[in-house]
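Box 3.1 A note on notation
Throughout this textbook, protein chains are presented in two layers. The first layer is the amino acid sequence; the second is a token string describing backbone geometry. Keep the layers aligned when reading.
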Amino acid sequence: MDIFNFPNHQKDLNSFDFPKLSILNSAKKEWQDRKRWWINTFNIKSELGRNLLLGNRGSFDINKSKGNKIISVFDATLCELMYKWFCPPNGKILDPFAGGSVRGIVAEELGYNYTGIELLEAQVLANQKQSNKPNWVVGDSNEILDTLKQEYNFLFSCPPYHDLEIYSNHHKDISNMNWDKFIEVYSSIIQKSYNKLEDNSFACFVVSELREYRNDGRYSEGYYKGFVPTTIKLFEDSGFKFYNDLILQNPSGAAAKVSN
């Protein structure tokens, strides 16, 4: 059921918005048109800088992408709406799991001040070639957050979904840690991020559930790991109050491929 309508977006960066409801249907033509507008207007190539190791999605060759062996690219339309809804104009945004270039470019072009921390230097260099406006910092968020002097108005990120995508064999990359160590470091980063926010600020993490699987990349029993409720608990343990959740309804084509 469609529960909202989009206005026609214009070239004015601040003209795009729609009612603040909790189900976001990204399959809508207006949503997809806006996402393509962002990518084409600012030449965003967020997939650059990443060559995944084995993970739940399998290995990835940037020149031979097939089936479900893909690099996830953050949705620019979702990014725009979260900034406009939950961050004050010209506010300061903190992203402890920066990854690709989307969140930084969208933030800066909308007039926000974005700081994104990314462990892998190759990823940051790829981002900087697309735009030198965002402040991308190379390093481990668990360490870098201790050194940041300013406070922020909005915490916005998409953390690694444990081992769904393994980004590197770096010893501080939480995507290649076992579950218990992953949660330990993940919790620490959330707590340190909380400490960097101004009072009465919002935080939004884009997370989904994930399943257990064997080392060959196939699902075993397929039980949920509980990533979503664990994330909520870690935020609350750090001092946050759970304000709301949003459901991002994506096109179902990829899900159909792996439903069996």
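The beta strands are 23-25, 92-95, 113-118, 135-138, 152-157, 197-205, 211-213, 219-224, 247-249. The first strand starts at residue 23 and ends at 25.
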